[in-house]
Sequence to fold (221 residues):
Amino acid sequence: AQRVTQPEKLLSVFKGAPVELKCNYSYSGSPELFWYVQYSRQRLQLLLRHISRESIKGFTADLNKGETSFHLKKPFAQEEDSAMYYCALYNNNDMRFGAGTRLTVKP
Amino acid sequence: DAGVTQSPTHLIKTRGQHVTLRCSPISGHKSVSWYQQVLGQGPQFIFQYYEKEERGRGNFPDRFSARQFPNYSSELNVNALLLGDSALYLCASSQGGVLHYEQYFGPGTRLTVT
Fold:
């Protein structure tokens, strides 16, 4: 069965430091992976998807099929990046979310 | 456009009762999906409807059902409520029929079952 694991419930970094939010998945086929973000008092929203190979708000994520990972990275964290981040996997009309990582960027 | 709207915002029900949650998609969006989010966990997929047809179903019991209306709004129904059904229920809409097409989420309905 497909599964998404985010090993860190909480992650705290200082402003300007690099940040990496981990996401591991279990799925035997070619997955489609996403990162969603929820800022305080806002709705859940799509941040980026692996097929687009885009950088959004300075964040990038690379799909590593060998390690079955899709870690989210940003070289210099900003205070406004503080939010809840969810990794999600899509397959065959089913979307699986991880439990989420709460990122806090300290001044 | 106010985005995806859901009603009610909160509600409290007793075990064994029935509940209906409502969702209005963004204008022009033909797909609506429903998710359950238990405290401390990520959203869990329940249903997707596109053009009034069920396109996908997650691993939920038959107590859960949904439908989509001609105006693309949707209802989620849960029968014989259990304490474990207490959660935030999220609705998301998208233009396309494929579930992963960019989804726009609503604010959710907080259901408490006592």
The mean pLDDT of chain B is 95. The longest strand of chain B covers residues 87-94.
